Each structure stands twice: as structure tokens, then as C-alpha cells.
Amino acid sequence: MAHLLYFAPKDCFMSYNYLPLDHNQLHFQQIKDLLEYNQLVSITYSAHENILRHIQQQRPIMQSAVQTALVQPIDHYFELNTTESSQLIPSEIVKLMLMLKIKSLSCGKYFVEIATLIRLMDMFNQNLLPMVYTQNETDNKNAALCHLLMPLLGLGKVYYQEKITDTAEIMNAFQWQPIPLKQNEYLQMLHGDEYICAYGIYCLIKLESILKKIDWVSTQLPAFIAQIYMEAQQIFHQTLQLFMEEINAPSKNVNQELFIQLNKCTNSICQLTHTLVEKKQFNPINTRFDSAPKCLAQIEIATQISDAFFIPYLRKN
Do 77 and 169 share a domain, yes or no? Predict the structure, then answer.
């Protein structure tokens, strides 16, 4: 346990049920375990040292610019991007977004204070999840990340103990103070693909489950369905590789290829599922910036279809 950072939650030191985050590669199985076993997160000693080193190097540059604490600009931005048509993102995806943001910041490439990173870890480990909304075509590309980071300033709402609560109320309960983010610090934190990466990984976990069920009967499939299955498997692995590469080496700008590949993978496996049970022709999802929630919705349908097929099959055989 020596590599775990000293300010990690006490529960981390009493159990191996945690995920250490730093510059080292994150693997798909680790992410699945994080959700399945409700693991905690902590950055490592090496990550802590790298962050401090980077801050020390960048501080003179940052102090030379005019820095003002952010309150009203973010609040106004939040209101603009929370439209009536927006839907809340599932809590599991919000958890992944938080973890991926901590993972990104743990690499020590951004001018973000340790106190900010500690607060993000506290939020994750207390299961205190920001209210994050799906993004529309008209939204700023960083709208979801803005929602994710609002509680740092004591703004917005959070999901805690199975109810939605004002962040200010939670801050009082935990005796927390808002983090005084500076303009440049906040803007740096808005860079990243955590929204699409979290959605993509969550979808891939569900798609993998469908493929595993189909694998049980793969030797008994008709030749044309077996071919579709093999192609779907190949696309799945290509998609997984692309997302894990993005997670472990984040792009500076939103990677549109992630949206395209997620749609392609979802369409291939949903088409396979519909063909397997002789359903009507599956209507593929169009590649759009707001397509990730639609992919998840289609995957949920495909999961129900596959369960309806495989549960009786397994009982019978």
C-alpha cells in the first residue's frame, strides 16, 4: 500500500479495494472492477510529486498573468448549457467522468492545484456525484465537463445518498469551502474527452456482455450470422483499443473519431442481436456529436433482446 498517496481516504488503507491513478496505463479490466466493486480512487506518490513539480515550474508564468477567481461566469455558463431538453447522465457514467478527469490531472501536465485534485477525489470516494447533463448539438463542446466541475465552486446540484441536493448544502455538511479556481486553471480543466470516453467505456462494458453471451452459442450459429458475429467482435476490439488509447494519452481537442467508432461498434452489435432473434431490420444510429446517449439507449434494447433469447436457451441447454 506504500504507493498510495498519504491523503487518501482511510478506507483505502483498510482494503485493497481502490484504484491507484497516475501516468501509468489504465486497463479495461481495471475500469470494470472500479464499477463492479465500487472501488475508491487515489493518486499515487509519484503523481503527487509530478504535479507539485509542474506547479512549481508553471507558477511564475501563471502569476505573471492577471488571475481572477471564477464565480459568476461559470454560474452563467452552467445556466446557458442546462436546457430543458437535456437529460441527466447515468450516475455510473458520471463516476467514470470523475475518475477519468482525476486520471488526466494526475499526469502532472496541467496547472491545477493539489487542493483541487483532492476535492475531486473526495467527491468520488464519498459517492457525491455532480448533476451532469447530456450534450446537444447546440451545446458548447465542454458543457458536460462544466457541469462536472461546478461543485468545486459550491455551485449546481449533486446526487448524494439517493437524492438530489444543492451543492451548497453538501458543502456545509462536509465543512468544505469552495475551491477558488483561477480563470486559467479552470479553462485547462475543461480540456479533455472525459464525456465521450466515459460514455464509450460504459457502452463497451455492456456490449462486451452481449458478445460473451453470443459466444456461448457461436459454434451453433448459421454461417451468415457467425460471419456477422466475427465482424462485430473485430469492430469491438478496434473500438476498445481506440478508447483506451485516448484515456491513456488524451488529445488536446475533442477526438471526433471516438464518436464515429462508438456508433460503428454499437450499430454492428445491435444489428447482430436483431439478426440473431430474427427481429425487424435495425435502424443504424447516425454519427452526430450528441449520439453517445442514443448509442446507450440502443444497447439497452439490444441487451433486453439478447436476455430474452439467451436466458431460456441456457435453461434449456
Answer: yes
Residues 136-154: what's their mean pLDDT?
81
Pick the last residue of a domain from 171, 189, 207: 189
| Same domain membership, residue 204 and residue 159 | no
Which of 49, 31, 42, 57 is closest to 194 using CA atoms?
31
- Rounded to an integer, the average pLDDT of 141-148 is 85
φ, ψ dihedrals at 211, nearest 5° = -65, -35
- pLDDT score for 75: 57
> What percentage of the chain has pLDDT greater than the value 70?
78
Can you give the CATH number for the domain in which 250 is found?
Answer: 1.20.1440
Asked if residue 1 is part of any domain, the answer here is: no
Same-domain check for residues 131 and 199: no
Q: What is the pTM of this model?
A: 0.88
Whether residues 234 and 256 share a domain: the answer is yes
CATH of the domain at 121: 1.10.275.10
CA angle in degrees (0–180, nearest 5) for 40-71-43: 20
Asked if 20 and 44 touch (Cβ cutoff 8 Å), the reply is: yes
Q: How far apart are CA 205 and CA 275, in angstroms?
A: 21
Cβ-Cβ contacts under 8 Å for 14 (sequence gap 6 or more):
none
Task: Identify the domain boundary among 136, 163, 189.
Answer: 189
Q: Residue 76: what pLDDT?
A: 59
Residues in the chain: 317
